[in-house]
Design goal:
two-stranded antiparallel ribbon; single chain; alpha+beta; globular; binds coenzyme A
C-alpha cells in the first residue's frame, strides 16, 4: 500500500448507519474502557451539535474510525483508530496532514502522558511529527466509570495554546464534549 493511500471518510449520522457496527466494534477494541463512552452516550452524541463520527475506508475496505467535535474556534479530534492491519502504513499521517491543512483553525487532541507507557510515548511522537505541540497546563478527563479524573496532555496544531486559550479549550471540551457542569481544573 502506498503511504499516500487515499482515505475515504464516510460520516456516521446515527447508530442506524450501516457502518456503525464496524465503527463501534473497533472503538471498543481500541480504547481503554475508562477512556471511552458507552453505547448509550454514543447514541445521544449523534444528536449533538458539532459531534462528527466517521468510518474510514481504504481501497473500499473499512480501515478505521474518527470521532470528534467541531467547535467555532477549534476542532477536537477525540478518537482516531485504525484496524491493526492498516496501521503503520502512513494512513494516519496522510489523513491528519489533510485535515490539518484544511481546518483553517486550531486542532486539539488529548494524549496520555508519555511516562504512562511506551505506546503513549510513540503516540505523542507521532502527533509531534505532524506538527502538534504539547501544552503543559493541567488537563484531565473524566473516567466514564469510576468518576475519577484521568491525567492527560492537550496537544494543539499548529502552535501551543496561550494560557487563555488553554483555559477556554479545556472549558469547551469538558462542558460540551464530556457534558460536565464545570471543567476539571486540578
Ligand atoms: C495511532 C494511529 C492512528 C496512527 O496511524 P498509522 O497509520 O498507524 O500511523 P502512520 O503509519 O502514519 O505512522 C506510524 C506511527 O504511528 C504511531 N503508532 C502506530 N501504531 C501505534 C500504536 N499501536 N500505538 C501507538 N502509536 C502507534 C507510531 O508513532 C508510528 O511511528 P513509529 O513506528 O516510528 O513509532 C494508529 O496506529 C492506531 O490506530 N493506533 C491505535 C489506536 C490509537 O492509539 N489511537 C490514538 C489515540 S486517539
Amino acid at each position: 500500500m502506498e503511504p499516500t493511500a487515499a482515505v475515504k471518510k464516510i460520516r456516521i449520522a446515527s447508530a442506524k448507519s450501516r457502518h456503525f457496527p464496524q465503527f463501534w466494534k473497533l472503538f471498543e477494541k481500541s480504547f481503554p474502557k475508562d477512556e471511552r463512552f458507552s453505547l448509550r452516550v454514543q447514541k445521544k452524541l449523534f444528536g449533538k451539535k458539532g459531534y462528527c463520527a466517521y468510518a474510514l475506508f481504504v481501497d473500499g475496505k473499512f480501515a478505521g474510525l474518527e470521532a470528534g467535535w467541531q467547535f467555532p474556534k477549534f476542532n477536537f479530534v477525540g478518537f482516531l483508530a485504525l484496524e491493526k492491519q492498516f496501521r503503520n502504513k502512513g494512513i494516519g499521517t496522510a489523513l491528519l496532514r489533510k485535515e490539518t491543512a484544511a481546518a483553517g483553525k486550531l486542532i486539539v487532541l488529548e494524549a496520555e502522558p508519555r511516562q504512562k507507557s511506551a505506546k503513549a510515548k510513540r503516540r505523542i511522537a507521532f502527533y509531534k511529527r505532524l506538527g502538534f505541540k504539547l501544552n503543559s497546563g493541567h488537563y484531565a478527563i473524566p473516567d466514564y466509570y469510576n468518576k475519577k479524573a484521568i491525567p492527560m496532555m492537550l496537544m494543539s496544531f499548529a502552535r501551543k495554546l496561550s494560557k487563555k486559550e488553554f483555559v477556554e479549550v479545556r472549558l469547551t471540551i469538558h462542558t460540551k464534549a464530556y457534558g460536565l457542569d464545570k471543567p476539571i481544573v486540578g
